[in-house]
C-alpha cells in the first residue's frame, strides 16, 4: 500500500504502561516527511495498516517529542505576559520574540513578579507506546496527498486529547 487515510483508536502510554491519553483520530494521512518529522516515526509505524488491525508502536523520546531541553525553560516578568492575572500552572501562553516569532510555552511556576515558562512539549523526554486499533483504512487520493504536504503528518494535539 502507498499513502493511506486511516481512522483509529489510540491509547497512549508511557514506558511504564501508565495511560496518558485515549483518543479517536479520524482521517489521518500516513504520509511522513521522514522519521525525523514531528511524530514521523509514528506515521511510519501506521503504514500498511488494515481495517480492524491492532498494532503497538513504540517510540523512543527522540522519535516522539524529543529530549527535554532545560534551555527551553525561561523566566519573564509578569508585565511581559498578557492576561497574567488569570494564568495558572499548566496554562499555555504565546511568547513573541524580538524578531516576531511566536512560540508556545506552558506556565510551570508563578514567582512573585516573575513567571517561569517551559517551551518543551509536555511529553518531551519520554519513551511512548501507541496502542492502535484501525477503524478504517484506505488509499489516499492525489488531492489528499497534495494537501497533506502542507501540514504535519500526525497532529500531536489530536493524539493527546
The best one-word shape is: elongated
Radius of gyration: 18 Å
Number of strands: 8
**The CATH topology of the largest domain, please?**
Chitinase A, domain 3
Output the helix-strand order: EEHEEEEEEHH
The major pleated sheet works out as: 4 strands, antiparallel
Total of DSSP H or I helical runs spanning 4+ residues: 3
Total domain modules: 2
Helix residue percentage: 10-25%
Unreliable spans are none
Strand content: 35-45%
Class of the largest domain, according to the CATH hierarchy?
A: Alpha Beta
Overall CATH architecture of the largest domain: Roll
Q: Which structural class do the helices and strands define?
A: mainly beta
**Cα distance, first to last residue?**
29 Å
Biggest sheet: strand arrangement: 2-1-8-3
- What is the residue-averaged pLDDT? 87
Textual characterization of the structure:
This protein starts with a strand and ends with a helix. Strand 1 and strand 2 form a beta hairpin. The chain folds into 2 domains: 100 residues, Chitinase A, domain 3 (Roll); 49 residues, Beta Barrel (Thrombin, subunit H). The mean pLDDT is 87. The protein is built from 3 helices and 8 strands. The longest helix has 7 residues. The chain is elongated and about 55 Å long. By secondary structure, it is mainly beta. The strands form 2 sheets. The chain has a 4-stranded antiparallel sheet.
